[in-house]
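Data card: per-record layout.
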Amino acid sequence: MPDNGAQRRSRSYKLAIEDQEFLLREEMRAFRFGMEFAKADLSLRDWGIRSTVVVFGSARIPSRETAESELAEARDATGRKAARRRLAQSVHYEHAREFARVVSLRGGALAPASAHRDNVIATGGGPGIMEAANRGAADVGAPSVGFNITLPSEQVPNAYSTPGLTFQFHYFAMRKMHLAMRANALAIFPGGFGTFDEFFEILTLVQTKKAPMVPIVLFGRDYWTEVLNFPALVRHGMVDERDIALFDMVDDPEEGWASLVRRGLRAHTPVHDTPKDPAEPPLRARGAAGRRKPAARKPAPGG
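The structure for this 303-residue chain is written out next.
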C-alpha cells in the first residue's frame, strides 16, 4: 500500500472538534460563544438549578481570620494601618458568608434530591466577597455556583464553590449572561469597578425593563452612601426618584433577607432541610426517574 502517513498527519484530516487551531480561528467566534453558553447551561440544568441569588462584591475583602493574621504579622506603622483597615473591612466578608447561609437554608437550594433547586448562591467564583458567599453555602451543605473568568493576572476559583458548578469563561459577555439569566435576586457588597459594572448593568436592565423586576439589595449603607451619591443623580435630573427605589440599602444579613422577601423573592423552603452533600451527583447521573419537567424559564436579558 502507498504510504498515506502525510495525509493522516495533516491538520485538515483531524476531526473538527479535535482541531484547536481551527476552533480558535476568528471566524469560529460565534461557535465558541455558543459552546460557552451551552456548557454552563447544560451543567446547571443537570444539577436542577432553576434560579439563583447572585452575590457581587470586592475580591480584596479578607476573612476575619486572614485580616487578624495580617495584623499580627505587621512590622511597621504603615503595615499595621493597612492591616487594621482590612480587619474593619472583614465585617463585609462575615456578612456575605452569613447571608449566603440564610439564603441557602431558606431559599430552596437544599431541595430534595429529585427536585429543582431555587435561589442557589452564585458568584464570580474568585476570592473576597465571592469566596465568602460560596463558603456560606458550603457551611450548610448547599451547592453554590462560581462563574470564573480568564484574566491577564490569572484568576483562580475559591475553594468553596461546588466543584461541579465551578465554571470558567473567556467571554465577559457570556459570563454576565449566565449571572443574570437565572437571577431571582441580586446582593451587592462593597466593591470597586467590577462590582459597580455588574450592579449598574443589571440595574439598567431592570430600569429599562429589558430584564424582569428582581429584588436588589446593597449591603453597607455607610459605604454606598459615601461612594455613590444617588440623590445627586435625581437632583440633576439624570434619573427619576422611582429609579433609586429599585434597590434597598441594608447593614446585616437578616435585614438583607427581609428586603429580598419584601420585594418579591419567593422562598422555596424544602420540607426536609437536612444539609446535603454539595458534591452529590447531578440529576442526570441519578437517571430519568429523578427528573421533573423543567419549569418555564425567564428569557435571558437582551434575548
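Known properties of this structure: The longest strand covers residues 183-188. Residues 77-107 form the longest helix (31 residues).

See the next section for split statistics.
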